[in-house]
Amino acid sequence: MGREDLFRQRTSKSPQQFIEDMRKNAPQFGFRVHEVVDMRNLYEGYDVEVEDNFEVYTISLCNPQKSYKSITKNPERNAAIIEQKYIAVYKEDKGVTIINYLSLPKEFIREVFPDDEEFSESLYQSCQKRIKIIEASL
After folding, report:
1. pTM higher than 0.70
2. How far apart are CA 30 and CA 34, in angstroms?
């Protein structure tokens, strides 16, 4: 796994508009925006002083049916599934919104789950669909 697995995109949309567009586009791919965490609110809730221009969000993008079936088959899969649901969205000082997503390569998944070839392919395909949802939402 390397830097090439970090999917990066830019958009002129505000983070809020990008997130709203993801909500609209995700169902076309069998996914749902499960949760949006405003990191400003999270940090301020822990009494962290946050800069005025800090605008960072963590989005959980899930295919609930597929996730449930996968975890039911092998609960250890949850450790890999959970992390792959998250997309980072933040606003740069120049007003550009940046989207980052760390996709797991099949080879890495195979190393972690060597006796579960079905899962390495399935999780990889889910990662690729998340990238398509991001692209459709730009």
Report:
1. yes
2. 12
pLDDT number for residue 17: 97
Residues in the chain: 138
- Which residues lie below 8 Å from residue 9, measured CB to CB, with a gap of 6+? 98, 99, 134, 135, 138
- φ/ψ of 55, rounded to 5, equals -140, 95
Residue 106 pLDDT exceeds 90: no
CA pair distance 133, 127, nearest whole angstrom: 10
DSSP 130: H
The 3-class secondary structure across the chain, one letter per residue, is CCHHHEEEEEECCCHHHHHHHHHHHHHHHCCEEEEEEEHHHHHHHCCCCCCCCCCEEEEEEECHHHHHHHHHHCHHHHHHHHHCCEEEEEECCCCCEEEEEECCCHHHHHHHCCCCHHHHHHHHHHHHHHHHHHHHHC
